[in-house]
Amino acid sequence: MTTVLAEAESSSTKKGMFMAEPVTPAATLIENKGDMKVKMELFIMKIQEEFCRALEAEEDSGMKFHVDRWTRPEGGGGITCVLQEGAVFEKAGVNVSVVHGSLPAEAVGQMKARGKELDGKNLPFFAAGISSVIHPRNPHVPTIHFNYRYFEITKDSGEKMWWFGGGTDLTPYYLVEEDARHFHSTLKTACDTVDQGYYGKFKKWCDNYFLIPHRGERRGVGGIFFDDLETPSQEHCFQFVQSCAASVVPSYLPIVKKNKNEAFTPAERDWQLLRRGRYVEFNLVYDRGTKFGLYTPGARIESILMSLPVLAKWEYMHSPLKGTPEATLIEVLKNPKDWV
Predict the structure, then answer these.
(1) Residue 130 in contact with residue 94, Cβ under 8 Å?
(2) Alpha carbon of residue 125 to chain centroid
(3) Which residues lie below 8 Å from residue 225, measured CB to CB, with a gap of 6+?
(4) Helices then strands (H, E): number in the chain?
(5) Is residue 340 part of a domain?
(6) 99 domain residue, yes or no
(7) Which residues lie across from 69 on neighbouring strands?
(8) How far apart are CA 85 and CA 63, in angstroms?
(9) Total domains, the chain
(10) Is 145 labeled as catalytic in the residue annotation?
(11) 79, 131 in Cβ contact below 8 A?
(12) Which strands, in side-by-side order, build the sheet including 124-136?
């Protein structure tokens, strides 16, 4: 972390380790270098840069991410990186947000529903997170989503509550079991590095969280998902988040490289767009992060809705024929498998 702090202190952050200058002023970062808020901000900015550069390397045209550094009047801001209409990635978004202010009543209610003991109004909060969704053009390349976040609230008593949340999950349009096993195996290794009990627990949580109830199917083949992680210690939880976030590139990029040049038919493209419709349904109806963003005053809607694809499709009463690759995928989405 010392190297990252030095980079933040220098004037070269725009062209150095990060996609843009940190949200928090460099002097404040240096002054508070031991604070978890600072550690998390610098870490997610480094992950953003690494992932964006890895994706850019897959675009033979040399296409680069558009970098949008924004501020939130109520406190904080973020860096939104979007690559759109590439040869490989139809839309790729990697967003970092570092925001603070007063917690809106709707967000308090959402947290109380998860068992958080919060009293009072307009509670001071801090949230730092990285969120990414990648929508490839080729239907033989799956979509990936990952999100890692740190949250801190100061109660009326002055007591501070904190927790981490996040996860990584894969949404294929055509099931390639070898790819699913590689993806899950990489995540399991990242989990086992910190706690060998995490993968099984968080894999099951992921399968349950990404259920689309009105469809009776999962969004994809899962991965890991966790929230409200606050034990056994703050440093332990942070180490786990670091391990998981660092596994995103090795879990996903080999799958992209393997499949990005596969030939595909118009019918396969139509199926991809139909499955993207399911993705949209989940994100707008059920996703916690989307809800929190929409509840937060001064939220940047473009960044919140960055996860949505450029194109999606809905057809009345569409159902794949039995015995087809499309039907094979649906079977796994309805009945999650153990991949490792």
Answers:
(1) yes
(2) 21
(3) 166, 167, 169, 202, 205, 206, 209, 210
(4) 12, 9
(5) no
(6) yes
(7) 79
(8) 9
(9) 1
(10) yes
(11) no
(12) 66-71, 76-84, 89-102, 124-136, 143-154, 160-171, 222-229
Structure tokens at 276: 């993207």
The two three-digit tokens of residue 61, written as one number: 């045209």
250/256 Cα distance (integer angstroms):
11
Amino acid letter at 337? K
DSSP string, 216-278: TEESSSEEEEEEEE--S-HHHHHHHHHHHHHTHHHHHHHHHHHHTT----HHHHHHHHHHHHH
Q: Which residues contact 265 (CB under 8 A, 6 or more apart)?
A: none
What's the rounded Cα separation, in Å, for the pair 126 and 296?
A: 12
Model pLDDT, residue 328:
98
State how beta strands 66-71 and 89-102 pair: unpaired
Query: Does residue 94 belong to any structural domain of this protein?
Result: yes
Classify residue 320 by its DSSP letter: P
Do the Cβ atoms of 76 and 23 come closer than 8 Å? Answer: yes
H or E element, residue 339: none
Alpha carbons 100 and 125: distance in angstroms, whole number: 5
> Which structural domain, as residue segments, surrounds residue 262?
2-334
Side-chain half-sphere CA neighbours of 135 within 13 A: 22
What does the buried/exposed string (b/e) look like for 1-11 if buried means 16 or more CB atoms within 10 Å of the residue's CB? eeebbebbeee
Catalytic residue among 100, 135, 140, 145: 145
CATH number, domain at 98? Answer: 3.40.1500.10
Averages of pLDDT over runs of 10 residues in the chain (340 residues) are 55 65 93 95 98 97 94 93 97 96 73 64 89 98 98 86 96 99 99 98 98 97 97 97 99 99 98 98 91 79 92 96 97 97
**Domain assignment of residue 163, yes or no:** yes
Residue carrying structure tokens 């967000």: 107
